[in-house]
Amino acid sequence: MDYKGEKCPVCGEIFTDDDDIVVCPECGTPHHRSCYTAESRCANEEYHSTGRKWERTVQKKPLYKVCPVCNFPNRVTDNNCQRCGAEINDISIVSMNENEPEKVDDNIQAAFSADQEAFLDPIKYLGLDPDEDMGGASMQEVTDFVGPSTIYYLPKFKRMKDDGTKPSFNFFSLIFPTLYFANRKMWGWAILAAVLGVLLNLPADLLLYIEEFPDSLASFISNNKSMIQAVSDICLVADIGVRALFCLFANWLYFRFAMNSLKKHKTGGRPASSIKAEGGIKPMNMLIITAIKYGIGFIVLAALYYGFEMATTIKDFSTLCLM
User: Fold this and answer.
1) Please, what are the domains in the chain?
2) Which ranges does the record mark as transmembrane (predicted)?
3) Model confidence over 178-226: pLDDT tens digits?
C-alpha cells in the first residue's frame, strides 16, 4: 500500500517515497522503521484491544492522462483524448492528490481549476467542455437539465449546435411518441402526439370494435365498410409518416425545448440548483398522458356517436317534412 502523504504517528513527519516504512501487524498503522524500533511498540497500541484498524487520512483522487494537445484530463484507461481524439497511449499519468502538487507545466495546471471536480468528469460531459455555450445555456446546464441519458443526448446536441443538423434517430419516439414526450415533460408535443394518434387510428378502431357500438352506428359502419377501410388505410400510412417524423426530429425538438426552458429559467432568476428538478424525466407523466389519451379517444367517440345520432334525427325529420 502507498503511504505517501500520510504522517508517522511517532515523529509526525510525512512519509515520502524514500522512507523505510513498517506496518503494525495488528492494526495496520504505518511507522518509520527507526521510530518503530525506538518505541518498540505500535503508536496506536490502544487500537489492538478494540480491534480498530488504522484508516488513511489522505484520500487520493483519481489519476488522469492529460492530453498534450488540448490539456483535457482523461481516464487512465483511455487511449485517445475524449475531447480532441489525440492519441494518449504514451502520456504520463498525473496524480490529482490535493496533498501532492504535481510538477506539471502551467498549461496543464490551468486545466485543473478550482472547479476541477466538474471538469474532471469525462463520463458526465463525455470529454466536452462544461462551459461551452450551447445557444443560451452552458454544456453543464444542459447536462443537468437532461439528467439521464446524457451519453446519448450530449453528442447529438453538440452536433445540432455546431452543424445545424436536425434529423437524428430516436427509436423510443418512433414506437411510443406520446410516452416519450410526456416522460421528457414536453406536454405540448405529448398532447399533439396523443390527438394525432387517436384521430389516425379512429377508422381502424371503428372497424375493429363495430360490435361494441349501438345498432344504428354499427349498421352505418357495416354499410360503409369499404369506404371506412380505405380511409383506415390512408390513416395508417399517415400514422407511419407522423411516427417517422417524430423519430427523426424528436431529439431536435428536445434540444430546442431544453434551450428554451433553460433561457426561461435564467430570465426568471431561479437558482441553478433547480435545473435538475425542471428537466430530466418523470415516468409518472407516461401514466398521465395515457389516461389523457384514453380521455381524448372517449370524447372523439362520444362526439362521433352523438353527431351521427343528430344527423340521423335531422335526416328523419327532413323526410317527414317532405311527406
Assistant:
1) 1-58 (3.30.40), 59-125 (no CATH), 171-322 (no CATH)
2) 187-210, 230-255, 286-308
3) 999 999 999 999 999 999 999 999 999 888 877 777 777 778 788 888 9
